[in-house]
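Record minuted for completeness.

…
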Amino acid sequence: MTAATSLATLARLERFGIKPGLEAIGALVAADDHPESAYPAVLVAGTNGKGSTVAMADRALRAGGHRVGRYTSPHLVSLQERIVVDGSPIPHPALEEEATSLLSRADALVARGRLTTPPTFFEAITAIALSWFRRCEVDVALLEVGLGGRFDATNIVPARWGLITAIGLDHQAYLGNTLEAIAAEKAGIIKSNMTVVTTEDRLALRAIFSEAAASRGAHWVDAHRGTALSRVGADRLQIETTVHAYPPVRLGLTGFHQHLNALGAVRLLETMDSHGVAVPPSAIMAGLRDVEWPGRLQRVVSEGRTIWLDAAHNPAAAAALAAHLQESGAAPLPIVLAIMDDKDAEGIVRALAPIASRFVCTAPDTPRAIPSTSLARLVSNLVRPTPVRTAATPAAALRWDRVEADTVCVTGSIFLVGEMLRKLDEGP
C-alpha cells in the first residue's frame, strides 16, 4: 500500500460511523505493543470546553519545560491538527507512515478474526496518535475524549489524571436524553488511582462524579471547592485556589465561558504538579495568557470586515457565544449558520435568535450537513420576522448582498468554521 493510498483508505473508514466500545481499539494497541503505556496521560471529557482546556494545559505544560503530546478532535482544516507534539502537528510524511502501519495491523487483525470489521476512523486515528506520541517520546499526553467517555476509544488509555468539563445536551442518541445520563457516560473515564477534576457546579451532576470516583478508588477534585474566580475590570480574570493566588490575567481565549475552562485547567495542572509533573505558577499563567485555539470565538478581519468564527454546535455553546457577542456590543449582527443533521438545530437557533439581525443558512461540503433550504425553513419558523436567506456555499454566504453588514458571525458547526477558515486563508 502506498502512502497516498493509506491516507485515502484511512479516510474511507468514516463509512463505519460511530461504534462505541473498546474492543477494536484494544486490539489495535495490543498489536502495536501498547503505546498508550509509554507515557503518563490525561483524559479530558465533557460536553463543551474540552479542546479549549486541553489547549490551555498544553501551553502551560510546555512552558514548564515538558514535551507534550496533544490529541483533539475534530479538526478544522487538516487532519494533522489532531495529533500535535510540542505545538507542531504531525508531519504529513509521518502521518502517512503511521497510517500505513496502522492499516496493515488492522488488516492482519481482521484476517485472524480478532476484528470482525475494520476499525472506525476515530479508532484508527486514536491508535495513530498513541503510536506517534510514543515515537516522539513525550513526557505527557493530553487526550480529548471524542464522544462520551465510557466507550470512547481514548478510554483505552490508563490515564493518571482526568478532567471533566461542563455537561450539556449533545449526542443524545448515544449518551442519553438527560444531563444525569450524559454525566454518567462522561464519568466513564474515571479509573482506579486516577485523580479527576470536574468543573460542574450543579449538585446532581457533582454527586454523579463524586460517587463514580469513590466507587472506583479514584480521587475527586471539585474545581469549585476552596477556589475563588473573579473578573478584574472588563477583560481580566483572577483565580485563587488552596494552592496559589494567581495574579489577574487576560485570557488568550475570548469569552466569559472560558473562565470556567481556565479554572479547570488550573486545578488539573496543580494536581499534576503535586504528582511530580512540575508546573509552576508562572507556567500556569503562561498557559492561560498565551493559549491559542482557532475557531473558538476567533476574530478575523478580511477585506475590511470583522468575522467572528465559533464552532458552537449545541445549545449551551450557542448560548455562550450569544452572551459574549451581546456583552461585547457586537450584536445584533448577521449569523451565517450551518448545522449537522444529528444536532439540536432548534435549540441552537433559539439560543442565537436574540443576537441575529438576519440568518444566512448554508451547508459545508459534508453529507452530514442539513441542506441549506431545509435549515432555512426551520430557522424561519423559529425567528420570524428576522430575515432568513440561503447560500449555496459557505463562501457565498459572506457576500455583501447576503449579510449587508461589516461584522458577521459564522457558527453552528466546526465543519462550517473549518471550511470558512480555508476560504479566508486562500483569499479572494
Residues 3-290 form a domain with the UDP-N-acetylmuramoyl-L-alanine:D-glutamate ligase fold (CATH 3.40.1190.10). Residues 166 and 369 are 26 Å apart (CA to CA). The mean pLDDT is 93. The first strand starts at residue 41 and ends at 45.
